[in-house]
Amino acid sequence: MIAAILQVVLVVAGAPLLVGLMRQVRARLEGRAGAGVLQPWRDLRKLLRKEPIAPRGTGWVFRLAPLLLAASALVVTAVVPLVTTASPLDGVADLFAVTALLALGSVALALGALDTGTAFGGMGASREVTVLALVEPTILLAVFALSVRVGSTNLGAIVNSTLDDPLAVISPASVLAAVALAVVIIAETGRIPVDNPSTHLELTMIHEAMVLEYSGPDLALIEWASAIRLSVLLGLLGSLFAPWGIAGADAGPVALLVAVVALAVKVGVLGALLAAGEVFMAKLRLFRIPELLAGSFLMALLAVGASFFLA
Amino acid sequence: MNLTQTAFGLSLTLCLAAALAALALPRRARPAVAGALTAAAGASAVASGAAAVAGQGWSAWYPDLLPLLGVRLALDPLGGVFLAVTGAVAVCAAIYGIGYTRHGLAGRGVQAAMPLFVAAMLLVPAAAGVGTFLVAWELMAITSLLLVVAEHHRRAAAGEAGQWYAVMTHLGFAVILAGLAALAAHAGGDAFDEIRQAAISPVAASLIFLATGAGFASKAGIVPLHVWLPRAHPEAPSQVSALMSAAMVNMGVYGILRVGLDLLGGGPAWWWLLVLGAGAASAVYGILHAAVSADLKRLLGHSTTENMGLVLIGVGAAGFFAASGSRALAALALVAALLHAINHSAFKTLLFLAAGSVLHATGTRDLDALGGLRERMPYTTALFALGALAASALPPGNGFVSEWLLLQSLVNALPEGGVRHAVTMPLAVGAIALTAGVAIATFVKAFGVGFLAKPRGEGAATAHESPPTMLAGMLLAAAACVGLALAPTLLLPYLAETAGGVIGAPAAVTGEVTLRLGGIASTISPLLIACWLAAALVLVLALLRVFAARRARREARLWDCGAGPMTARMEYTATSFAEPLGRVFDNVLRPESDIDVIPAKESAYIVERVRYRARVADRIERRAYEPVLAAFAAAGRAATRLANGSVHRYLAYGFYTLTGTLILLAVIA
C-alpha cells in the first residue's frame, strides 16, 4: 500500500519534470538554452493562480472534462505496476481496463472540445477520436501477444513473468509488441510524428486544438494530466519490457528506493530518446497517420502470430 | 402451478387485455391504459423469465389450441434469459409509449398491435415445438411490420422501409420454415424434446443449420442480410424501434443458439467459424456505417448490427470451442455473448428512447440540424450520455464488462488450441478491437454533435423537455444500465449456470465483487473501478480547492479569431466530424459526393453558388440487392406482355399447362 501511494505521488510530482526534461533535450539539440527542467511546474503554478474562465455557451460537459481526464489518469497511475508489482488495485483492472480508462479520458476531452461549438474544437475532437479509433486495435492485439505467454492480462502477472524469465523479452513476440506499443504510445500522447505538442496555430494540430478554450486552473489540470499520461505510458513500456529494479510484494525501504530510482532512470531515458527523435523528424500529414498506425497494427498481429508459432 | 407458469400466463393475458382495451377504449384513455397493461405484462414476463433462469422449469402442451399440432410451451433457463430481457425492454417501451403516442399515434391499430407484438416476442423463447415456434415467429413479424408502417401517411420513407422489411422478414421466415420442417421430418416429431433425442445425419444437420441460420441471422441484422434493419428501425415509432432493436433482434441469436447448440447438439467446427466470421464482418461493417451516418436513429440501427455481430462472435466462439473440446472456454464465450446481448438490450433501449425524445421535441433525426440540446433537454441529454458511455464500451459503462469477458475468452483460447485457433482468434480480437475504437468515435459524434454546443436548426432551437412518462421509461432503462455496469456479478452466476447447462460445462465465471474466470488468471472489478474513479475525481477536486485560486468563474467570449461572434454555421457537423474516418475507410465505405458549382451569369469565373452533397451508400446493398431487384423488375415488365387481354391466349395457357402436367405425371409415374 505504501509502495502504491509512493508510486502515485512520484508520478504526480515527476510527470511535469519529465515534460521539462524532454523540452530541455529538444532545446539543447536545436542549439537553444532552454527554459530549464522545472519550467512546466512553474507554468502549472502560474495557471493555477489565474481566474477560472467559462467561455459563453459552454456547459457541464466542458467543466467536467478536465476533472475526468485527470481522475482517469490518476486511476491508471495507481493500477499500472511502475514502482511495485503489488499494487492494491492489480486485481481490479488489467491491461484492457487501463487502455479503456485512458480512452475514457480522451473521450471526455473530445466532448469538452465539442461543447465549445468552435470550429477548432470540433476539428481537434474529430481528429483525436479518429486516431483513437485506429490506435485501439493495435493496443488490444499487443496486449494479446503479451498475455499469451503468461495466461493472464493482469499487469502484475505479466511483469512478474518477465522477471522470472528475463530472456522472454528478446523473443520475437515481445520485440514486435514493444515496437507496436511504442508507436501507439507516440500516437496516444500526441507527439511527433502524429501530433506536435508545441504548436498552437497550425491546421494540423490535434490535441492543442481541443484545449484551445481552456484557461487557468482547467488548463493546468489538462496539462498536468497529459504529462501524467505520458509518464505512465513510458513507465508501462519500461515495466513491460525491462522490469528490472521494480519492487516485489513485500519489499523493504531499500528495494523501494531502488525501484524509484530505476523508474526515474527508465522513464527519463525513454523520454530523452523520444525528444531526441522528435528533433530529427517532421510531423506527418494527418492522412498519412493511418498508414503509420496500420503498420503498427500489422506488427501487433505478427507479434500474436509469433507468440503462438515461435513460442 | 409454479411461478414461471403463473407469471408467463399472466403476462400473455395482460398483453391480450391491453390489445382489447386499445380496441375498445376512447382515444383519450387509450395510450395510458394500453401502455400500463403492456408494462405490467412485461414486468410479469421478467418475473417468469427470472424464475425459469433460477431453475423453475415448466412445460405444457395444449393439443386443441392449434389444429394438427397443438401448442407446445416450455421454459428452460436459456429461454428464460431471453424472456426476461424482452419483458424488461417491454416495460420501458410501454411506459415511454404512454407519453410518446399521445399525439398522432393513438389510433386503434397501432395501440393494439404493440401489445400483440410484445406477446409474440414472449412466445418465441417459450415455444417448445416447431409448429408453435413458427406461429409465434410469424406473429412477431406481422405485428412488427404493422408498427413499422404506422407513420407511412406522414413519411413516404416508412412505406418503403415497410416493403424492405416485409420482403426480408418473409424470406427469412421461408428458410426457417423449410429448415425446421426438415428438422421435424428427420426427427419424426414436432416437439423439441423428440428432436433432441433423434439422430440426424450430418449432411441433413448441416443443411438445416445453414437454412435456419440464414433466417435467424437476417432477423439479427447480420451482414449481408442486414439491409432492412437500418431502414425499418429508424422509421418505426421510437418505442417500437427500441422493442425491435433491443428485443426482437435477440430472437435471431436465440434461434441460432436453440437450433445449433441445443436441438442439433453442437455440430462441426466449421458451422461456428461461419457464425464467428459473419459476426466479425457485421461488427466492423455495422459500426463503420454508424460512424458515418448523420441520422441519429439510423446510426443506432447500424450500431445494432455491430452489437449483434459482437454477440455472434461470442456464440460462434462458444460453438467452435465446444466442437474442439475446450468446454470451459466455450461456456465462458457463451456467458460473454449472453451478457453482451443483455447489455445491448439495456443501452439500446435507452438510446432509442432518448433519440425518440429528441425527435419528439425537435421534429428531426438529422444530427447536422441538432445540437444545443444540453440546456433545453437536460434530462434527455444526461440519459443519452449514459447510454453512449455504455455503447462505446468504456468503463464504468456496462458494455465494457461484456466486451472484456468476450476478449478474455478469445485471448485465452490460443494456448489450448491448434493452428485453427491461432489463425482465427487474433483476427476476431482485431475485429472486436477495431469495432471498439470506431464505436467510441461514433458515440462521441452522436452525443457531442447532437446534444452539445449551439443549435444548428430551427427544431433544436425550440426544443423542450419530454413529458414525465417518457422520462420514466428512459430512467428505468438507465437504471438497468447502471445496475449492469456496477453489479454484473449479481447476474453472472445465473448466466454462467445457464451457459454451462447449454454447453455441458461447469460455471465459467465466479466472484462477488471481482470477476474471476474458471481456469484463467485474469480478473477485473467493475464496481471497484467505478469507486476508484469517483475517489480520484474527489481527490482532484480537493487538490484544486487547495491549490487553485478561489475566485468565481467569469464568463468570456469564445475565441473567434477576432472576426465577431461565432455562429452555429461554424460548428463542426456530424458529417464533417466523421469525414476523416470516412476517408480512412474509403475502400470499405466508398462515400459518394457531388459538387455543383453554379457560376454567375456575367462570368464563368465568378461563382454564385456551390452545392455539395455527400452520401454513403451501403455497398452490399448496391452490389448484391440492386441487381436482383432490377432483374425482378425487368422480368415483371417482360411478363406484362404475356397478359394482353386476349381470352384465346389465356385458354391456350391453360391448355398447355394441363397437357404439360399430364405428360410430366405420365413420365414420373
TrEMBL record, chain A:
Q: Which GO terms describe its cellular component?
A: plasma membrane
The main place the protein resides is membrane
Annotated membrane topology: Multi-pass membrane protein
Subcellular compartments: Membrane
Q: Which Pfam families match?
A: NADHdh (PF00146)
Could you confirm whether the keyword Hydrolase appears in this record? no
Query: In the record, what terms sit under GO molecular function?
Result: lyase activity
| Highest rank taxon of the organism | Bacteria
Q: Where are the transmembrane segments?
A: 6-22, 60-83, 95-117, 129-148, 168-187, 227-247, 253-280, 292-310
- For this UniProt record, give its keywords in alphabetical order, as a comma-separated list: Lyase, Membrane, Transmembrane, Transmembrane helix
InterPro entries recorded: ComplexI_Subunit1 (IPR052561), NADH_UbQ_OxRdtase_su1/FPO (IPR001694)
Output this protein's name: Formate hydrogenlyase subunit 4
Species source reads: Thermopolyspora flexuosa
From TrEMBL, chain B:
Regions annotated as coiled coil: none
State the superkingdom: Bacteria
Its annotated compartments are: Cell membrane; Membrane
Q: Which Gene Ontology terms cover its molecular function?
A: lyase activity; NADH dehydrogenase (ubiquinone) activity; oxidoreductase activity
Q: What is its main location?
A: membrane
- Identify the GO cellular component terms for this protein: plasma membrane
PANTHER family with a match to the protein in the record: FORMATE HYDROGENLYASE SUBUNIT 3-RELATED (PTHR42682:SF3), HYDROGENASE-4 COMPONENT F (PTHR42682)
Q: What is this protein called?
A: Formate hydrogenlyase subunit 3/multisubunit Na+/H+ antiporter MnhD subunit
Q: What is the native source organism of this protein? A: Thermopolyspora flexuosa
